[in-house]
Amino acid sequence: MLKNYFKTAWRSIMRQKVFTMINVTGLAIGISAALVIYMIAVYDFSFDSFHPKRDKIYHVVTNFTFSGVPYKNGGVTSPLGGVIKNEIAGITEAAPFYIANDDTKITVPDGTATPLNLKKQDKVVYADARYFNIFQYKWLAGEAKTALSTPYKVVLTQKQAELYFPRLTPAQVIGRKVIYNDTVNTVVTGVVENLPGNTDFVFHDFISFSSMGVALSADQQKYNQRWDNTTSASQLFVVLDDKATVANIEAQLEKLQKKYDPNNGKDFNGTQDFKLQPLKDIHFNSEYATFNYRTANLTTLYGLLAIAAFLLVLGCINFINLTTAQAVNRAKEIGIRKTIGGNRKQIIVQFLSETFLITVFAVLVSIALVPLILKFFTGFIPEDITVGMLKETSIIIFLILLSVIVCLLSGFYPAMVLSGYKPVSVLKNQTHAGTGKTRNAWLRKSLTVTQFVIAQFFIMATILVSKQISYTLNKDLGFKQDAVLFVNTPWRENNADKKQVFVNKLKSFPQIENISIGSTPPSSAGYNTTSVKYIDGKKEIKTDLQLKNGDENYINVYKIKLLAGRNITKSDTTQMMINETYLHTLGFKKPEQAIGKFIEHGDTKDMVIGVVNDFYSASLHSPIKPLAIVPAWKYNNYVVHVALKPKTEGGGEWKKAIAQIQAAWKEVYPEYDIDYGFVDESIAKFYESEQRMSKLLAWSTGLSVFISCLGLLGLAIYTTGQRTKEIGIRKVLGSSVRQIVSLLSKELVLLVILAFVIVTPLAWWAMHKWIENFAEHTAISWWVFALGGLAMLLTAIITLSFQTVKAAMANPVKSLRSE
What we know:
Helix 1 crosses helix 13 (344-376), helix 16 packs across helix 25 and helix 22 runs parallel beside helix 25. The protein has three domains: 1-47 and 297-433, no CATH class; 54-284, no CATH class; 484-686, no CATH class. The protein has 26 helices and 24 strands. The strands form three sheets. Strands 1, 2, 3, 4, 5, 6, 7, 8, 9, 10, 11, 12 and 13 form a 13-stranded mixed beta sheet that branches. Strands 16, 17, 18, 19, 20, 21 and 22 form a seven-stranded mixed beta sheet that branches. It has a four-stranded antiparallel beta sheet with strand order 15-23-14-24. By secondary structure, it is an alpha+beta fold.
């Protein structure tokens, strides 16, 4: 019986090749999107799901406010790790660890024929047995209790051990030497297996915690023991017992903070609070960052799932529309089936069989498209997501369930409608399924409107996102961005003489216009903030102040305008230049009024010697904040800023200048690789997520419009087929091609216009919510909606014209001869 269902279904499909192709294409696009996005979701939600205590593991983080502005840090003050377990009830395990700098130098003297030297290595931490009590690795050599119990010991992951000591077994690696930054000489005391699943805990070198006495300078160690010092390098994880609650632990942490740091927040006009972050939140929370340097975004994931759902719905709508539109063509078949004894259940199964076959074809096409999609979206899709995931049990089950759901969504309603025809009415040609008078026709119109609501929403969203990205990349940020590059000198070799030698070499190059030594560029991902206060005799103004360090050439390299006062000179030590925002914060209206005023900064007073124009120190997501430029020589400045001369027609000067800079670097810092970048390119990286969103929206828009137009073309083919004789009669009676095309297109064009009316307020609301994420943003102009609606209307008209013009130009004799 089942064989007959599918045999009949196959014959029916082959009789309707055009409609079958439209249905398969629409469904395949939706299923492909759903499959790839499900693979991304499976990948991201699987992170650190394998830890035995995962539901009880929490990351202790720090929330700050400075003058009411919130800041978040994934680290804690270092002393907290030593007292938290003993002084807070409800914690069964506590593991502090310290992340080494991300450009650690590693030397392996006896692993290969020549010593192995690795530069700019990250994922190195200082830890002890407490870390391995919470995160349970499988030990291939050594023991967790003793491996890191004394200084100068290191535990390696299996992969790292194989890199350092090829051809040696884990047991043979024990006792070998590994040197970090030429100062920390360690002996391997353990090798652990790599964690078994996707994880953000990607550390591969675990140096004993007590070795930090050698790794850090005396000043660093002293500073790290202060309760008022927080660094993201100092990490802390805890395990709660079964009775403990997050609220209770956080309340105890607040009391502990007040006990050891009674002046908490008072020194910087703010607050400092410890919070617990669940382990499962780490991979999705960019505010505290991850150790894997990649966070997934739940909002983006849900947005991707919504896009997949929309594309699937569009494909299903096409199927429903085309199947119900062809109801009249299948009516006599159904009537005859019922007359010879077929019941409604059998007819429903028959039509669902056809739907299932089409769905299976669509799934097979989707699987074939996956490698192309993964390759095309490289950079957006994590590299660990590969075609090999299609073999995983969860993916196979997903495809089976998706096939069943799509089959039911697409085929159940048409099957119910078609199976409900009465044999007598059908055989007397009294059905009107193809006319505009039936409930089925109104359903088709509603579904068509839904399709174009979705398509137009994507078009409008794509236009606005592109407009915002263009706005952010072209907005005047208050300083020169183009033709400026920055070179990061080695932080471990903070030798002022070497830096000056390097700068002097650069000054001799004719392609270079100006050079400065300082901290980061005016706009950068990192920033330094301190607490300051100003006393005007009547009141005290406390606020946080961002600091940029620069020499006398800093504002000249970046063309930052000096509004009043003077620039920094080499003799300055306790002077600063402030921006307009801080000027107004202090209550001054004119730049000249701030000159000569003193700002208290710790134990010193810095005099305002100049006022510069406002410039953005971060992305446009954040507003301009109070900022000061202080003399470079007061702090550790490791960045050389280079302004290049404009390119000439040949355009080879910059390339030559970079080659000369690289050669000069090798002469001064032969042991280090040069680390440089262009300022405008670093600023563009602020908006990588928006650019990825724009690309994704563009493809979603194209696919949604394509699917909608496929359905529109299918309906046009069916409509013109149903009205062939009417068209012939009208042509005989004198109607022009334009009139007939207008007649055939009018109803479907009106549906597109109705969709525009419905989607416009929805799109405006969604765009308004999205653009609130930017402190500075483009306007939501009326033409965004008008252009989106017009683009969809023109696309629909062009799509319809392929069939309507063909039908209008057909010879009426042929259409009337078959009567």
